[in-house]
Amino acid sequence: EERTVASGGGSVQSGGSLRLSCAASGDTYNTYYMAWFRQAPGKEREGVAAIDGDGSTVYADFVKGRFTISRDNAVNTLYLQMNTLKPEDTAMYYCAADRIGWRLLAQYNYWGQGTQVTVSS
User: Fold this and answer.
1) How far is Cα 12 from Cα 15, in angstroms, rounded to an integer?
2) Sequence-distant (≥ 6) Cβ neighbours of residue 27 within 8 angstroms
3) How far is Cα 84 from Cα 63, in angstroms, rounded to an integer?
4) Are 24 and 34 in contact, with CB atoms under 8 Å apart?
5) pLDDT tens, 94-119?
6) Maximum distance among all alpha carbons in the chain?
7) Residue among 86, 47, 89, 41 nearest 69 (CA)
8) Residue 47: HSE in the Cβ half-sphere, 13 Å Cα cutoff
């Protein structure tokens, strides 16, 4: 069974960068679709970026050109490089995994515990 643990969140000023990591366990990690989601207080969870086993990616419009999703199958880890951060990027960020390619839909079967990102102006 797949398990994910997210890390790398923190507090940065507007314009700064952070790199989130998501360590995944499971024998078939490289066959899973994976994604990053975020949820701000009082708002619904929204898809940020997704990646399939061969590296194909999809991004939400609000992060295109600023965030990059990647994965290293050799170490079962998913990444989210976040540049030019804005205060509106403040949220709890979650990684998710599934054998089905849900892309940016929050239908994934496996979810990590989340890591907080706070961007101050």
Assistant:
1) 8
2) none
3) 10
4) yes
5) 999 988 889 999 999 888 889 999 99
6) 42
7) 47
8) 20
- Are 82 and 88 within 8 A, CB to CB? no
Contacts of residue 107, defined as CB under 8 A and 6 or more positions apart, other chains included, come to: 98, 100
What's the token pair of residue 95? 């990684």
Q: Which amino acid is at 5?
A: V
**Alpha-carbon dihedral angle through residues 63, 18, 108, 88, given to the nearest 10 degrees:** -50
Q: CA nearest 60: which of 51, 52, 71, 49?
A: 49
Q: What are the pLDDT digits (tens) for 39-76?
A: 999 999 999 999 998 889 999 999 999 999 999 988 88
pLDDT category at 29 given cuts 50, 70, 90 is low
Binned at pLDDT 50, 70 and 90, residue 30 comes out as: low
The per-residue DSSP string of 29-94 comes to GGGSEEEEEEE-TTS--EEEEEE-TT--EEE-GGGTTTEEEEEEGGGTEEEEEE-S--GGG-EEEE
